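Record 1 of the preview.
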Amino acid sequence: MRGMENRPDLPPEIARRRTFAIISHPDAGKTTLTEKFLLFGGAIQMAGQVRAKGEARRTRSDFMKMEQDRGISVSASAMSFEYDGHRFNLVDTPGHSDFSEDTYRTLTAVDAAIMVIDGAKGVESQTRKLFEVCRLRDLPILTFCNKMDRESRDTFEIIDEIQENLAIDVCPASWPIGMGREFIGAYDLLHDRLEIMDRADRNKVAESVKISGLDDPKLADHIPADLLAKLREEVEMARELLPAFDRQSFLEGHLTPIWFGSAINSFGVKELMNGISQYGPTPQPQMAAERQIAPEEDPVTGFVFKVQANMDPKHRDRVAFVRLASGHFERGMKLTHVRSKKPMAVTNPVLFLAADRELAEEAWAGDIIGIPNHGQLRIGDALTEGEGLRFTGIPSFAPELLQTVRSGDPMKAKHLEKALMQFAEEGAAKVFKPMIGSGFIVGVVGQLQFEVLASRIEIEYGIPVRFEPSQFTSARWVSGPQAKLDAFANQNKQHMASDHDGDPVYLTRLQWDIDRVVRDHPDLKLTATKEMMV
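->
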């Protein structure tokens, strides 16, 4: 971990910040868990359930029309709320694998991650991919094994699978009692107490029974004898076989504590939240190309990790989500936009409670604020009080699927171009303009993104569009000495395009072409990712 031992004490306002993301495979229950966090944080009165009916279905963190229709989270939203004397900044990430790039970028803006696993399915493919990204950044990870109120797998089996698949030590923070219909609660191993689930009221917090260890006779009043015997035996085994909780090891990203529960029944959520406030990391230093930025530094610095267009369809606004890396920000401050070297007065920064926003009078390192703008701010941009910093590590991936896009109305070609550029800056898709011919080629990481784009272009811009297969299947950014680049582009005009930043891109459908370029043009570099550097 990034030198935690000899760091100076943080100002109390910064030290109480906990900025984290929730990651999981689609359908593991991430949005439901987010809802319960907001419920216990007092941010909403009644948690909406993704699967519930009518009004109750309008979950607060999914505000795009398509998300509400499909019950999936498409865009990562940020939410801030108070809990137990701490300020939680929770970044919800899209669970669907087709939106993984948005998620990868989101993980650059948080200090820890909660991994949600479905008790019946264990570690799934998307979880593994996201976990790798957390690994690259040494993020501390807390694990929540959800849906214990349904038939789930053996507890030891789930823990083994996490240890083997993800190569991380697992320490049980709680131990489930029964499962499926028999599931009655969990034993809190960190505080030696019994948590009992209330099935009648889904929004009610579980009751805690104070006991002195597993030998306490009071346990028999709450747990059937067979389950109690099993619990005692399993916990004894767990304590012998599995590592004890070690905060240092957790902060370094080597050990994950795991809680068992049922988010829809509000069970185990509170314990998880306590885990974050007690053990979770304070805002961490952020890396820039020039130096490391510590949160306690006085000057305000921050970087844009996400741009969301049209959050309010009535005002074509774009909100740049900014993670503050240092300092104490106050509304109306003038910050330098490093890429354009221009000063920017931040007069109406917002804090998010899902789709509700309120003006942020102030914010501290670790907080995430939204800055409404008309397209000046892009992903990867740095805002500082004058220092020329470039934050590193925000990835942009080569798209895996390419299609051409045509407007149903030829008169609206200009509008379509504007819409596409907006989505490109938002990071929702790559847009390539071929050197020869008209039209655009749109690249995405997953098929579902084409549907989302088509639906958003129609809803937000009133342009019906259709995506058609393109002759190309892969894109690579090309870099090298300008003269060599120009000569190469002239030889390969029908393969060349530029992305929305104007950088040259080589499009092809054959791996053979890529290998040939690498062989015949040793001075040029073809890359599948581009650091979103300013």
